[in-house]
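Batch manifest, entry 17 of 40.
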Amino acid sequence: MSKYENILFDLDGTITDSANGIINGVIYGIKKVNEIYNLNIEMPSKEILRKFIGPPLDISFLKYCRNDENLANEFIKYYREDYNGNNGLFNCKLYEGIFDLIKNLHDKNFNLFVATAKPKESAIRIIEYFNLNTFFKNIYAPILGEKTKNKTDVLIEALSKEKFDKSKTIMIGDRIDDIEGAKIVSIDSIAVRYGFGNDEEFENATYIVDDAKSVFDILIK
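Output type: structure tokens
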């Protein structure tokens, strides 16, 4: 019998491979900020562009592009113009084995939730697009336009509202935000290598796995 009852899934990099849509939006947003404000912000390398996937976009812009909150807000506006307007939202795919993992966990009566830094409206649309909505009890994510929430904030909200037993709750994610957030709120975590993170980010993970099947094996043992 599993020690866990409540499972929190990250979205980008854990459920969906969303690299193309997000990176295209980031490139568009930086180009528009340069164009509108007559700036010359250097386009990040491919490696750095991938780091925009997962954490809040304004935090990534401030870290990798320009430490200017007003510009970061403008960047996000143009990013969303491309991401939402050019179908970037659905320019993604499920990782191999993820649909079956989620369905099988649901069928075994685990309580499943999404915990993402992506705006809630977008997260809901993606979950519905892939017909996963019937498996999840709730989606925890920032409301579009509200103050930026990092993964720790999202997890705190989920734990507070759901009244989870922390010893029976686990976070599944691919970035340091997921793993460190889980550590801060005192729940276990599974780091997945197939997403956008690397082993350096997984130092504090309870488990590290290579694929969806390995996630299932951990959760049902």
